[in-house]
Each structure stands twice: as C-alpha cells, then as structure tokens.
TrEMBL record:
Belongs to the FPP/GGPP synthase family. This is Polyprenyl synthetase family protein. It comes from Allocoprobacillus halotolerans. The keyword Transferase applies. CDD domains: Trans_IPPS_HT. SUPFAM superfamilies: Terpenoid synthases. Its cofactor is Mg(2+). It holds the Pfam family polyprenyl_synt. InterPro entries: Isoprenoid_synthase_dom_sf, Polyprenyl_synt, Polyprenyl_synt_CS, Prenyl_diphosphate_synthase.
C-alpha cells in the first residue's frame, strides 16, 4: 500500500512539471503533495487490483481523482467557507500563499483533473464515461451540494437524516465514484455494489472524523481539533454521542464487508485497505 502511495505522489509531481511557472503552480504542488492519506486514489487502484488488473496504466486517472479532492480541500479551507489555517499538518493553501492564489490553485486542479483524463490513451468512450462520473460526483448535485448544506447547517441544527444527506454528498460522492470508476474499467456488473459500498464507507469515514474531532489532538489530526464545535456544526457526536457514533461506524463497515464478499474478486486486497481505514487515528 505504501509503495502504491509513493507511486501516486511521484506521478502527481510529474503531471505538474509541464505547467507554467508561478505562484499558482507552487500552490498546486504544495497542496497536492502535503502529507495525505491518498484514500480515494488508493481505493480506485486497489479495486482494479482486486479484479487482477495491472493498475499502472490507470495511474493518471487516480491522480485526477486526487486533484479533484485536493481542489475541494483548498476551497473548503478558505475564509468564506470553513476558514481553516491548518491542513494535513501544514498551513492551508491560502495561509501559505494568499487567498487569490488559493482560489486559482483550486480552480486549476479542477480543470487539470479532466484534462488528464482526456489525455490518457484509453478509448474515447471510456474516457468520457470516467470524466462524466467524476464530475457528476464532484459537481453541484454531488460534493458541492454537500458543501452547500454543510455551510447552511453551521447556523441551523441538523437532524440525523439531514446530517446523513450532507455526508453522503460532501464525503461519500467522491469516495463512491472512485470505486465506480474502477468498476467501469474492469467492465464488471458489480458497479452498484461499489456505489453503495462507497456511500457507506464515506458515511463511516465522516463519522470517524466527527469522533476524532473531539477525541484527538491537533497534532494527531494535522488540522485544528474541535473546529466542528467552534463552528457550531451538527455532528454524529453531538446528536448521538461518541459510543453510539462508534457503533454506527462498525455497523457501516460490516455492511461494506458483506457487499465485498458478495463479489467474485480478490477480497483480501480491498479488505486490507478497509481495515486500515477502520483503525485510523487521524
């Protein structure tokens, strides 16, 4: 897994090398190569491996997914959004550079992601399908909708159902589409399984974040601990408490495992990654 992560980081840097020099390029690389989990590209590549496919021809697709995720983090941290000054253990992009550069860096990564997909040597139909899936998931009906609702409920109390809707879109969409894109490449009929696994994993991941926000330190998280409380956000912890939230995480992972075992794949590869996510402490 670490080798795969290193390969992703190396390719991200290579893909940025031809870009025109300047602060925007510096900000893009600074944010892309900040120490991160690389969860979404790792999920994408690991699903390919679970179907006995060589993942190397699809590394650029994995990088495109990470670029979209990084763009969302840059914009999420901006003063007009969550106004954070720490991300992945480093200053947020707008703090390291400036707000205008951060906005442009996020815009550039959003644009570069689709260009990278279109420039691959995959057949045109597959390229269009992958780009469509990724940009639907990250667009106004997907991740952006989730961010909109997240901001709204900073000043309004959310019900559990509303909170699940936020998490499904803000976090679940991009995780789910990473799995779906791999299933499309594998030309499998398992795509609906992966779609639901992604939503369940995304919800579990976000509940873990809610728990860690009140149980872990800023040093452990690489971002400001307690920020949800400071921003008056409704979370699983505020609605259900820590113990019930943890029970929900474990229940969601069990649902994922059941769906994984229902497919004819190399279960061990994807389960290894899922278990690491379940046991994460940051």
């Amino acid at each position: 897994m670490e080798r795969m992560k290193d390969e992703i980081n190396q390719r991200l840097l290579q893909l940025c090398e031809p870009l025109k020099a300047g602060k925007v390029k510096e900000a893009m690389i600074y944010s892309l190569l900040a120490p991160g989990k690389r969860l979404r590209p790792l999920l994408f590549l690991t699903v390919l491996k679970s179907y006995q496919l060589d993942y190397h021809p699809y590394m650029d697709i994995a990088c495109a997914i990470e670029m979209i995720h990084t763009y969302s983090l840059i914009h999420d941290d901006l003063p007009g959004m969550d106004n954070d000054d720490l991300r992945r253990g480093r200053k947020t992009c707008h703090k390291q550079f400036d707000e205008a550069t951060a906005i442009l860096a996020g815009d550039a990564l959003l644009n570069l992601g689709v260009n990278i997909i279109l420039e691959t040597s995959l057949n045109d139909a597959l390229k269009l399908q992958l780009a469509y899936l990724l940009y639907q998931a990250s667009g106004v009906n997907g991740m952006i909708y989730g961010q909109q609702q997240d901001l709204y409920f900073e000043n309004h109390k959310a019900s559990l159902e509303q909170l699940q809707d936020i998490h499904k879109h803000k976090t679940g969409e991009l995780i789910s589409v990473s799995l779906q894109m791999a299933a499309c490449i594998a030309k499998t009929s398992d795509i609906e399984h992966w779609k639901q696994i992604g939503y369940d994993l995304g919800l579990a991941f976000q509940i873990q974040d809610d728990i860690l926000d009140v149980t872990a330190s800023t040093e452990q998280l690489g971002k400001n601990a307690g920020s949800d409380y400071e921003n008056h956000k409704s979370t699983y912890v505020t609605l259900l408490g820590i113990d019930e939230s943890q029970n929900k995480v474990e229940e969601l992972f069990e649902k994922c495992y059941e769906r994984i075992y229902a497919m004819q794949i190399n279960h061990g590869l994807i389960l290894e990654l899922f278990i690491k996510i379940l046991k994460r402490v940051s």
